């Protein structure tokens, strides 16, 4: 292909993946094309001297050779290669589409999980604040109990007529 075509293909499919491997299912019977090829008997070249000197040519023999069969075989092979390439391209395109879909799904899931992690971090921070407030309340309660004991001790040290009524703290 020309450089322009190859550049255009590169621009159209930047993530083109080419994988070639053997078929997973083998046919038990012999391929008819292979059977035809195996039925052809062994033969020597028609042109004299072709075995020893490949550059020696006999113009009379070349005129008698029919290239039509070879051209037909080459066309069939070209068609086969084109079909195989088209099928492979189709499967690769489907695979690329599926990969993009999976990538988009994974990106969405990662985004959702990141959002959830942030919200859980906020909840954990709020729980930490609740724990701090709880500890502060426990310290306040202990201080209040100490103050009430001191108040009762002071009240008991006063003369009876100057004493205050006992302080009763109700929670609830």
From TrEMBL:
InterPro entries: TBORCS5. GO terms for cellular component: BORC complex; cytoplasmic side of lysosomal membrane; synaptic vesicle membrane. GO terms for biological process: lysosome localization; organelle transport along microtubule; positive regulation of anterograde synaptic vesicle transport. The keyword ATP-binding does not apply. It is a lipid-anchor. Its main location: membrane. It is found in: Lysosome membrane. Keywords: Lipoprotein, Lysosome, Membrane. Pfam families: LOH1CR12. The keyword Transmembrane does not apply. Belongs to the BORCS5 family. This is BLOC-1-related complex subunit 5.
């Amino acid at each position: 292909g020309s450089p322009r075509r190859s550049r255009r293909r590169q621009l159209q499919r930047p993530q083109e993946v080419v994988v070639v491997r053997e078929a997973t299912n083998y046919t038990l019977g012999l391929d008819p094309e292979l059977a035809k090829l195996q039925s052809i008997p062994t033969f020597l070249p028609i042109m004299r001297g072709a075995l020893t000197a490949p550059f020696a040519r006999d113009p009379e023999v070349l005129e008698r050779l029919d290239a039509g069969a070879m051209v037909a075989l080459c066309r069939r092979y070209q068609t086969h290669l084109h079909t195989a390439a088209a099928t492979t391209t189709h499967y690769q395109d489907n695979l690329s589409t599926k990969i993009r879909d999976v990538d988009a799904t994974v990106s969405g899931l990662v985004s959702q999980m990141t959002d959830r992690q942030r919200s859980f971090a906020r909840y954990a921070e709020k729980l930490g604040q609740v724990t701090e407030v709880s500890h502060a309340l426990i310290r306040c309660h202990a201080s209040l109990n100490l103050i009430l004991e001191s108040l009762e001790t002071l009240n008991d040290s006063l003369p009876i007529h100057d004493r205050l009524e006992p302080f009763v703290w109700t929670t609830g």
